[in-house]
Design a protein that fits this description.
Layout: H1 16-23, H2 38-58, H3 61-70, H4 80-91, E1 94-98, H5 104-112, E2 115-119, H6 136-143, H7 150-171, H8 176-199, E3 202-204, E4 210-212, H9 215-218, H10 221-229, E5 234-237, H11 240-243, E6 256-260, H12 263-278, H13 294-304
Parallel strand pairs: 1-2, 3-6, 5-6
Antiparallel strand pairs: 3-4
Helix pairs in contact: 2-10, 5-7, 7-8, 7-12, 7-13
This protein binds fe (ii) ion.
Length: 305
């Protein structure tokens, strides 16, 4: 019998197909399903089966409904076209295959168009726990079930509109150094808000307890339990002025999490974020992590031109 590791497959950082399309400069791609190796399917099966009981215990009800309505595969890596067949009629969202990192303005603009840039590679089956970059399990099992919820989907679209507002605001600044300083601060604020909500948010459940809705937590076997159970995690009702100034680091479990009441609440907060942006309140947020990279900056400046 052939070894599970013999085929190159679509393993994160080890996929020749991805190297090829990146070399050709293709960002939006198709999902070459036939390239998944048995090891890739095995990684999905193991990730999915060990997460399932944790979702039932810690995930919010909208996510659990989303998992059911997408009829997600438990045994094999899902096909994006199958996922979209169930997703699109619910909220108009679609998973869109990408070859890697999507510069931030393009990412937000995809959300505005109800498209979700989706990684198609999957982590190695012998390294299920640690992965600094997203993979198809994070994107399809962690994010996409949330996109079946109308209020949440509308919130993502609203977030995409905020990115356009940011580009418009900075395009009106004639002085280039000033434009860069202002844009860097606004992008930091947006990245922090996205991080503490869409990636690591907690929500109050109907019974009064806390449930997870952030996709970074929903796709992490260890952190989903830690986020809810650990006495060391600080959990606070979300306060926008705090979030936009709060640094975060990506390489360890989050020590600080914020709670929303509902997705209508989250939608309202994105509107307030845009309002703060228009009033200049995001022009000088705390200058710590995350750093804003050149590619992301350029993506906003190009949109503003
Ligand atoms: Fe994510």
């Amino acid at each position: 019998m052939a070894s599970l590791t013999s085929a190159p497959g679509l393993t994160t950082n080890e996929a020749p197909f991805i190297e090829q399309v990146r070399h050709e400069g293709q960002l939006y791609i198709h999902q070459p399903y036939e390239l998944y190796s048995e090891e890739n399917h095995e990684a999905w099966r193991r990730l999915y089966s060990r997460m399932k009981p944790r979702w039932e215990r810690y995930a919010n009800e909208h996510f659990l409904r989303g998992i059911d309505s997408l009829c997600l595969e438990a045994e094999r890596v899902p096909r994006l076209e199958d996922v979209n067949r169930f997703l699109d009629p619910l909220t108009g969202f679609k998973a869109k295959a990408v070859s890697g990192y999507v510069p931030s303005f393009l990412f937000f603009d995809c959300l505005r168009n109800r498209e979700f840039p989706t990684t198609i590679t999957i982590r190695r089956s012998d390294r299920l726990d640690y992965l600094p970059e997203p993979d198809i399990f994070h994107d399809i099992a962690g994010h996409v079930p949330m996109h079946t919820d109308k209020a949440f989907a509308d919130t993502l679209v609203r977030f995409g509109e905020c990115a356009h507002t940011a580009a418009e605001i900075v395009s009106a600044i004639p002085d280039e150094p000033e434009r860069l300083v202002r844009l860097t601060s606004i992008m930091k604020a947006m990245a922090r808000f996205f991080w503490f909500t869409v990636e690591f948010g907690l929500m109050r459940s109907r019974e009064g307890g806390l449930r997870v809705y952030g996709s970074g937590l929903l796709s992490s076997y260890g952190e989903i339990a830690h986020a809810i159970e650990s006495p060391e995690v600080q959990r606070h009702p979300i306060q926008l002025e705090w979030v936009v100034n709060q640094a975060f680091e990506i390489d360890h479990y989050q020590p600080l999490l914020f709670i929303v009441d509902s997705f209508d609440h989250l939608f309202y907060l994105v509107g307030r974020l845009e309002d703060m942006m228009k009033k200049g309140k995001l022009n000088n947020v705390a200058p710590c992590e995350p750093s804003v990279n050149e590619t992301d900056l350029r993506s906003f400046l190009r949109a503003a031109a």
